[in-house]
Amino acid sequence: MDDLKDKRDNLLVLLETEGGSIETAERIVTILRHHYSGEISFIIPNHAMSAGTILVMSGDRILMDYYSILGPIDPQIQNRNGDWVPGLGYLEKYNQIIAKSKRGELSHAELAFLLDKFDPAHLHWLEQAREHSVDLLKEWLVNFKFKNWNVTKDRQLTVTQEMRVSRAEEIANALNETTRWRSHGRGLSIMTVRNDLKLEVEDFGSDADLSDLNKKVSGYYRLLKDYMGRRGWQYAVQTRDSRAVY
């Protein structure tokens, strides 16, 4: 980014990702905000899961269409077989067993399972990862997505800073709620984001004012995916001088 000539203030990020680490998402946001002082928007032509969803929540604008999905932000951990499993499900099961223990309902089998499977340090890391994601969403949504949210949609009430923080925390906690979504890989459509999370996102597929953007993004996205698929590339970076690096 330091080498880009005639860099503009605003940035539109076309994002497709299975996810990754929260720390990486946080660093990306820091870098983008350092280089672009204006509006940063995220457009999701396909999917942005897990840490990708966290990254999207840092945008001033979020653009989806009927095909776009976000995902729960449950951190993933590797079990003893090397498989990746939802970390908050691991933490939730631990809390269930502890609750049964307090009620005096814990069986010997469950006690043995507890002692064998649950590492206190690992549990602490999961709790911190969950709180980290909540803290990031509270900071980013309030500072960027909600910065111009001044009046409530239905009752036309004046929006306070406390209301922005509360709304951001509700969204963050909902995305971390494993019993709500059932599966880490579940896709949250634009209607789910709007209706269940109560988060306003723009529909770049049906909004007449965004029709030109839709045509350009859809065409570029299909061409890039085909180009990368033919060459077996997983990543591509295209700069203004049309060079591609994979």
Write up what this structure looks like.
This protein is α/β, with parallel strands linked by helices and 246 residues long. The protein is built from nine helices and ten strands. The protein has helices spanning 22-35, 51-56, 87-102, 108-117, 120-145, 161-175, 178-181, 190-195, 211-231, and strands at residues 11-14, 40-43, 47-48, 61-64, 69-70, 76-78, 84-86, 202-203, 237-238, 244-245. Strand 6 (76-78) and strand 7 (84-86) form a beta hairpin. Helix 3 packs across helix 5 and helix 5 crosses helix 6. The longest helix has 26 residues, at 120-145. The chain starts with 10 loop residues before the first strand and ends with a strand.
Low-confidence stretches: none
Q: What is the general shape?
A: globular
Overall mean pLDDT: 85
Please tally the β strands and state the result: 10
Could you say which structural class the secondary elements and strand pairing correspond to? alpha/beta
Helix coverage percent: 40-55%
Radius of gyration: 21 Å
Series of H and E elements: EHEEHEEEEHHHHHHEHEE
Q: Which sheet architecture does the biggest sheet show?
A: 4 strands, parallel
List the helices and strands and how they pair.
Layout: E1 11-14, H1 22-35, E2 40-43, E3 47-48, H2 51-56, E4 61-64, E5 69-70, E6 76-78, E7 84-86, H3 87-102, H4 108-117, H5 120-145, H6 161-175, H7 178-181, H8 190-195, E8 202-203, H9 211-231, E9 237-238, E10 244-245
Parallel strand pairs: 1-2, 2-4, 3-5, 4-8
Antiparallel strand pairs: 6-7, 9-10
Short description:
The protein has nine helices and ten strands.
